[in-house]
Amino acid sequence: MLGCALRQYRVSTYQAGQGPGGHGRLGCNTLSKPAKVKGQDHLAALGRRRKRGQARPQGQLLRPRNPIMRGWANYSRVGVSHAVYERLDHLPWITRRHWARWRHPRPSTAWAIRRYWHRVGTRLPFATSATDPAAVPLLAHSEVPMTRHVQVQGNRRPYEGAWVYWSTRQGRPPNVGARLARWRKRHHGRCRRWGLFCQHDDRMEMDHVNGHHRESRSVTLQALHGPCHDAKTREQGD
After folding, report:
1. % helix / strand / coil in the chain, to the nearest 5?
2. Is residue 13 within 8 Å of residue 35, measured between CB atoms?
3. Is the pLDDT of residue 130 over 50?
4. Which of 37, 49, 84, 204 has the highest CB neighbour count under 10 A?
């Protein structure tokens, strides 16, 4: 993956990675994390955006930054990125504190923190007031969960027709719509109601939990053919 630093760390025999085909022990683990220069470039880009809009209200300063931070964190989440994310969250916090002092030089730092930092759950992020109709908190890199890369199965190809596998893996195979693929990935390739893996020839149906599309925000994916359909038919017969 571009923008990552690869390094091998020597570990004990029982913690080391396996060789090709799962045979033997390598004596080390190969880990990847975001390259230091890429993190510096990311902070520099955020700093330039802050300087261009430092005279604007807090909400206008926050909204353009969130998509940039989320995208960078999502791209690097497959590596060992937690320590890098913590550093990327700490350094901008110092610049935001200086920005608050620049906006209000006479009041104390505690007053500035109470004005520009508001509690959201268990966090105290840089955010607009909760009474603001368009309240927006600043996202943190460390909020993005780490997702380890899963190796592609040896006999899988993107255009072989196994859209269930590819929609579950990457969310958008070439012959499946975006909405259906997104829910397939969220449900990990299983029928939400019956818990069985969906097959290639199953017809997918997206059902709202309470049966009303305007009052329910939770959507489940059900297979109307194959093993899930057979289980559903048996239950209705009973």
Report:
1. 40, 15, 45
2. no
3. yes
4. 84
Structural domain containing residue 105: 34-143
The total number of structural domains that make up the chain? 2
Q: Are residues 178 and 231 in the same domain?
A: yes
Q: Are residues 132 and 222 in the same domain?
A: no
DSSP code for 224:
S
Q: Does 126 lie in the same domain as 84? A: yes
pLDDT digits (tens, 9 = 90+) for 46-80: 989 888 888 888 888 888 888 999 999 998 888 88
Closest to 45 measured CA to CA, from 25, 26, 29, 69: 69
For tokens 């072989």, what's the residue? 160
Rounded distance, CA 80 to CA 215, Å? 40
| Cα 113 from Cα 84, distance rounded (Å) | 25
In a domain, 88, yes or no: yes
State the pTM of this model.
Answer: 0.62
The CA distance from 14 to 29, in Å, is 11
Same-domain check for residues 105 and 168: no
Q: Give the contacts of 210 (CB within 8 A, at least 6 positions apart).
A: 216
Q: Which residues pair with 4 in a beta bridge?
A: 34
Judge whether 171 and 157 are in contact, CB under 8 Å.
no
